[in-house]
Specification:
The protein is of the alpha+beta class. The protein is 20% helix and 19% strand. It folds into 3 domains: 88 residues, Ubiquitin-like (UB roll); 42 residues, no CATH class; 139 residues, Alpha-Beta Plaits (2-Layer Sandwich). Strand 11 and strand 12 form a beta hairpin.
Length: 294
């Protein structure tokens, strides 16, 4: 029998038993089906889910089949209950995930979303069967500041950036989901440019974006020029030197230059969140006399 043991010392002592893919699994009361699947070693695809954010239930990629339920249920937010019988890889589940992936890939650019490319192959999704004219999200890249760009032709409306900008992390509320139907998108208040919005340039929205819709200006420019090479880059963890909080920085270095900075969500004091200095303030490390002032 598989058992899931959370790391939190305050975890409930009572456990419940359910069946996942014909295997008995025990989890703490209050655990989600996604946590139960993870504890049982069952890899479940996700898109809008991130452990440090409130589940948004937006993408429906993590759906599983629950016996007795008319509809498929989102594993990321559905609480596990005693005696549940769950199927994570049934024909119905696989068909639903395939359709979700095909709809996404037919509407947006997933060129820099490697996880989704793997899921497409796993479920045999073919967005091309909808035709080249199916794309609806094509639009110009928004470049209105020197730190990061917004390319909403890559946005899958996963809500991660909105959650990170809101109560889950930053509490700035600079962006939100606006519009309806095909006009739905992520926007600042009254669609003002970022410099005129409430944005504080913490970059936490970039840190949680799974598709490259939000991207460091340095990465965007290097990709545009054909010089971005993720395979040749090294990643080094260090501690931010700007204050005493002690946030962990992951420096991405290519050809002896820091090309972007991230922060691990699974360790450190800030759960992947940074401020503007930690996220974007590393340029001084390699400032040369002949470098242009940006």
């Amino acid at each position: 029998m598989s058992e899931f043991h959370p790391l939190s010392a305050a975890s409930p002592t009572r456990t419940i038993e359910l069946t996942i893919d014909d295997r008995p699994v025990r989890v703490p009361e209050g655990a989600t089906l996604l946590e139960a699947c993870s504890g049982a070693g069952i890899e479940t695809p996700t898109l809008c889910y991130l452990s440090s954010l409130t589940p948004a239930n937006a993408c429906r990629l993590c759906v599983v089949e629950l016996e007795g339920s008319r509809a498929l249920v989102p594993a990321c937010s559905r609480t596990a209950e005693e005696a549940m019988v769950v199927h994570t890889d049934s024909e119905r589940v696989r068909h639903s995930r395939k359709m979700v992936l095909e709809f996404l890939a037919s509407a947006v650019d997933l060129a820099v979303a490697p996880d989704l490319a793997g899921y497409m192959e796993r479920y045999g999704a073919d967005a091309g069967r909808y035709g080249a004219s199916a794309r609806t999200a094509a639009q110009p890249v928004r470049i209105d500041n020197g730190l990061y760009v917004r390319d909403y032709s890559k946005c899958v409306l996963c809500y991660r950036c909105v959650e990170a900008c809101g109560t889950d992390a930053q509490n700035t509320f600079a962006i939100a989901v606006a519009g309806r139907g095909f006009g739905t998108g992520i926007a600042t208040e009254f669609e003002v440019p970022l410099p005129d919005s409430a944005c504080v340039y913490c970059g936490n929205c970039i840190g949680v974006c799974p598709t490259g819709a939000l991207m460091f200006s340095s990465e965007y420019e290097m990709r545009r020029d054909g010089t971005w090479n993720a395979r040749s880059q090294t990643q080094t963890d260090t501690i931010c030197s700007y204050c005493g909080v002690g946030c962990t920085l992951t420096l991405h270095v290519q050809e002896n230059r820091i090309v972007k900075v991230t922060s691990p969500a699974d360790r450190g004091v800030a759960d992947g969140s940074l401020c503007v200095k930690g996220r974007f303030g590393s340029a001084y490390v390699q400032r040369r006399e002949d470098d242009p002032v940006r």
